[in-house]
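As a warm-up, study this chain.
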Amino acid sequence: MQARSITAEVAMEPRMAEDPLDLVPELAEVSAALFKATGNRSVPRTTISLVQLRAGQIVGNTYLTVLHTDFLRKAEVSEARITAVASWKDAPYFSAAERAALALVEAVFLPAPHGERVSDELYAQVAEHYDAKALATLTIAIGQVGFFIPVALIAKPVPGRSFTDPWK
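Now compare it with the structure written out below.
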C-alpha cells in the first residue's frame, strides 16, 4: 500500500462504509453503559472531556479531537483552555485536579521510558484530588475513550459529524 502524500487532501467520508453500530448493535449498549458510568457526577463532565480530548490528541485522531473539542465548547469551556490541552503542563488554565487527570491519561496512553506507566507516585498524586468513586470513574472515562480509539482509527468516522450519526 502506498503512503498518502502529506499534501494530499483527506476525504470527508468514513473509511468503513457501514456504521459499526449497524453491524454490531450490541455496541450501543456498551456505549450507553460507559456514558452512564462516567456521568455519575463524581468527576466533572468537563474534566472527562479534557481527558478524552487529550487521549484523542495522543493517538492522533481527528474524529476524537473534534468530538471532544465540540463537547467542551458546548459546555462553554474557553478556547484558551481547549487549545492548551495539548500543552497543559505549562498552561495556567487547569486546576490541580484537572492536571492530575491529564497526567493520568498521558501515563496510560504514552510509553513509559522507564518503569511502569502509572507509578505509585502518580496514583497517589491523583488520589489526592479524587476520592475512590471519582478515581474509578476517571479510570472508566480513560477506558471509555480507549475502547473507541480502534473504531476511530480503523473505521475513520467523519470528523465534525454528530456523535450519534458520524456515518451519515
